[in-house]
Specification:
About 45% of the residues lie in helices and about 10% in strands. With about 110 residues, it is α/β, with parallel strands linked by helices. The longest helix is centred in the N-terminal third of the chain and has 15 residues. The termini are far apart.
């Protein structure tokens, strides 16, 4: 489900991060993807919400580890910092990678 934006006008990224996080918590969606200039503002905003574990994914390794070790359920991409071809590979990796659990679950519970 695409939550916007639908044009090239400047927007306030927190509005979209809040919208995604609230929707995920309300409808129990399990994966979200956020995009802004750097991705940083999106993860800062999304991580303020309960049950959201947003990770900045800037290459395949960071993407894979965010799922395997941190059970991230939201990925953020920086459109100014990540080429489209790499961003698409990161999205695919995020969707295909599973949480390892084990020792990582104990750590997730401390967040």
């Amino acid at each position: 489900m695409d939550l916007g934006t639908n044009n090239k006008n400047s927007v306030d990224y927190p509005d979209f991060a809040h919208l995604l996080a609230k929707k995920m918590n309300r409808e129990k969606n399990n994966i979200g993807i956020l995009v802004c200039g750097s991705g940083e503002g999106m993860i800062m905003t999304a991580n303020k919400h309960r049950n959201i574990r947003a990770a900045l994914c800037y290459d395949i390794k960071s993407t894979k580890l965010s799922r395997m070790h941190n059970n991230a359920n939201v990925m953020a991409l920086g459109s100014r910092l990540t080429k489209k071809s790499l961003a698409l590979k990161c999205v695919s990796t995020f969707l295909k990678t599973n949480f390892e659990g084990g020792r990582h679950l104990k750590r997730i519970k401390k967040i």
